[in-house]
């Protein structure tokens, strides 16, 4: 998650059951976050063990899919409300009802009387039309977190049937830059925001039958479709890349001011949480990455966009968290984050500090940053392009604003921090690794073997989960692929006469033994 964190310490393999606070100790964000992660892991593991990989409560199972074909309009899906669990994660498809507004005229006590003039409406004037009844269900096109665009052919439902309708589930962080209601305004604008949130994102998406590798898609049974989907989902969620990190004393360390110990391998003046994130996925020849020393948490809400000029709500609270000429930024909004389709990073070319404006190296793509309701903001990344060849020949040239992935060699980030991508990786946009760097040790915190060699690790996220919902056939019929479960509790059995007599006899024997015991 992109948040201002010191580090993330939860590891399921350690089998910790709770975090125990001690008196007189410093309270850290990492401890509180680990307690939350422990409880969440326990609850979701229990739910998955009892329910299975996916399922919904009988009588209120959500995500029942109805196909709505259109001769003129685009095909659509009706997503019925209710709850559904995927790998223990609760997904709620219930569509919230809009609130009822207060009618000021009715509140003044006179129906049809103006609150300002006190006169009745014109005789014979038609009543205003009743507002349309709000929809009770979501559809494929207006579901809350998918942001499907009818103008994009790739977003439309497959024309070739049958196809599978799947539920994709993942989580992302939300800060006050995206949801201003999280900010406590009583603290004042000079104070930073407080806690961030983690949001469950569910998306109903189609999977073409060709991707499932079914021998006879048109005649496939429910069991065959489910088995093929399970194989597809395991392949889609399996980690395809690994990374290692270390700190090595740079060759130019002797030229640096004496801000850290001479033998320190990490040369930075402050503790940092480095985030290395894949920008564009694919093979090593196609993939790119970006990195941040602040876990990608330095963001700037956008007030207005005018070509390549961007007006910001603020330019940062200090020199460490500000935005300057030469910085690389990612133009982000809620739809961009939810779709997970990376766009080129842009460089800050000019900064107008009094006007809180910056000029970018290009105009943002048409699909991002132009709808205020999607809360656009800039996210700063800390890598830079350089023309020199860094240590050990790792070239730092940019591709669409991001660094090229180079496998099988150590790539320097800054201040001695280096990363290594394992060969033959398959990279996904959003895959990321977190690397805490500490001045006290002059190194980074990363798993090592007995010989103190860094270990290759899979991405820390994004963890994606899938569940099958429906199989839409050529006849526009839907085969329901959901699972349901009933409540565990049932009525207590009524006690019969022999059972009551046995209980009374046992109670009488207990009293007899107590009466027979001598007093001390």
Q: What are its keywords?
A:
six-stranded antiparallel beta barrel; single chain; 26% strand; 520 residues; alpha+beta; DUF6519
Number of strands: 26
Measured by DSSP, the beta-strand proportion falls in 25-35%
Taking pLDDT < 50 over at least 5 consecutive residues as the criterion, the unreliable ranges are 112-118, 387-395
SS element count, helices: 6
Strand order of the largest sheet: 18-19-11-10-22-23
| Shape label | globular
- The end-to-end distance, rounded to whole angstroms, is 67 Å
Largest sheet: 6 strands, antiparallel
Which class best fits the helix and strand makeup? alpha+beta
What is the share of helical residues?
A: 10-25%
Number of domains: 3
Taking all Cα atoms into account, the compactness measure Rg is 30 Å
Q: What is the overall pLDDT average?
A: 90
Pfam families: DUF6519
